[in-house]
Amino acid sequence: MSSMVELKNITISYHSISGETNAVSDLSFSVEQGEFVCIVGPSGCGKSSILSMLAGLIKPSSGSFHIHSKTNIGYMLQKDYLLEWRNIHSNACLGLEIQNKLTPENIQRVDELLELYGLGDFKNHMPYQLSGGMRQRVALIRTLAVQPDVLLLDEPFSALDYQTRLYVSDEIGTIIRKEKKTAILVSHDISEAISLSDRVIVLSHRPATLKSIHNINLSIEERTPIKAREAPEFKDYFNQIWKELDVHVS
């Protein structure tokens, strides 16, 4: 495998009238092609800043990052941001429309994705008619429609209740693996990180530095997020990452 994304000694600082805030400090890691990596760390440690940098929304204060040439980036945020006045099919085509790629072939691809992932019968519905989990599936299809090589996922399940979150993360994690996408997920949920990822990157309190990287190897035949939680190794990974996050520090 070759590296799709590589960070070298990244520092991210924000400047305001009150002074400078260091979000990330001297951070280095890489993500291989086809890998699903999750970044976990205490709240406010700079996890989302890393994704914003990779998406080109902010620049690092120092250090450098490399994304494989001609790599197309897809960014899925915490909210689905579906446009309430457009139906589901139109929402799923929005990224293509913005990128001026609304070709018959790409529209057919959207139709196929909606059918494949259980939304074909809802393509003429409006967003308010869908459950939270279904809306997140539409948001993922909208992202996949532009055929990204790398998916950036910024806590996309955080707005859902626990039961819905569990099933939606299972659905979306399975979809991403089926589509063979490289993915970087930011999460504060340790169980979610272990169940979805090939590797879990643990960050320190702000400014975020690298504490550890865990290769997730689970002895189960079918690797889905829900099945992963049944693996005997799951609790060991959970306990180790829990301790590293120093969760009792406010």
Question: H/E series, N to C?
Answer: EEEHEEHHHHEHEHEEHH
Ends: how far apart? 39 Å
Low-confidence stretches: none
What is the general shape?
Answer: globular
Record field, number of beta strands:
9
Radius of gyration: 18 Å
From the structure above, extract its key features.
250 residues; alpha/beta; six-stranded mixed β-sheet; three-stranded antiparallel β-sheet; 9 helices; 9 strands; 26% strand; globular
Could you outline the blueprint of secondary structure elements for this entry?
Blueprint: E1 3-16, E2 19-32, E3 36-40, H1 47-54, E4 62-67, E5 73-76, H2 88-92, H3 94-98, H4 104-116, H5 132-144, E6 150-154, H6 162-178, E7 182-187, H7 190-196, E8 199-203, E9 210-215, H8 225-228, H9 234-245
Parallel strand pairs: 3-7, 3-8, 5-6, 6-7
Antiparallel strand pairs: 1-2, 1-4, 8-9
Helix pairs in contact: 5-6, 7-9
